[in-house]
Amino acid sequence: MGGTPYSTLQEFISFVLIKEQPYKKALSQMEMVQAVRGDYQVLASELAKAIELAGKAADDITEDMFIGNLEKTIMVNLKIMFNFCQ
């Protein structure tokens, strides 16, 4: 992929897309579900990008793996959380 892996926790934290939320007050069930749903939406978006990159690289196995992860894990959980929030 042409990059180098992060070698320290600080490097990893500076590039992570899902930020840790400090615990300042108790959250309601709805607030917790909405926060997790937002994290899953970020994951779904990043998986879509990975699927596109794997496809462009003609890496069918990796592309298939990402598609399976997106369909079977992320989208199912997003649907459950969406229904909970309605």
Describe the structure.
There is one protein chain. This protein has helices at 9-15, 29-56, 60-85. It has 3 helices and no strands. It is mainly alpha-helical and 86 residues long. The N and C termini lie far apart (41 Å). The mean pLDDT is 86.
Give a nutshell description of this structure.
The chain is mostly helical. Helices cover 71% and strands 0% of the residues. The longest helix is centred in the middle third of the chain and has 28 residues, at 29-56.
**For the terminal residues, how far apart are their CA atoms?**
41 Å
Fraction of residues in β-strands: under 5%
User: What is the H/E string?
Assistant: HHH
SS-derived structural category: mainly alpha
The tally of strands reads 0
Approximately how much helix is present in the residues? Answer: over 70%
Q: Which radius of gyration do the C-alpha atoms yield?
A: 16 Å
Dominant shape = flat
What composes the largest sheet? none
Keywords:
flat, mainly alpha, 0% strand, 3 helices
Topology:
Elements: H1 9-15, H2 29-56, H3 60-85
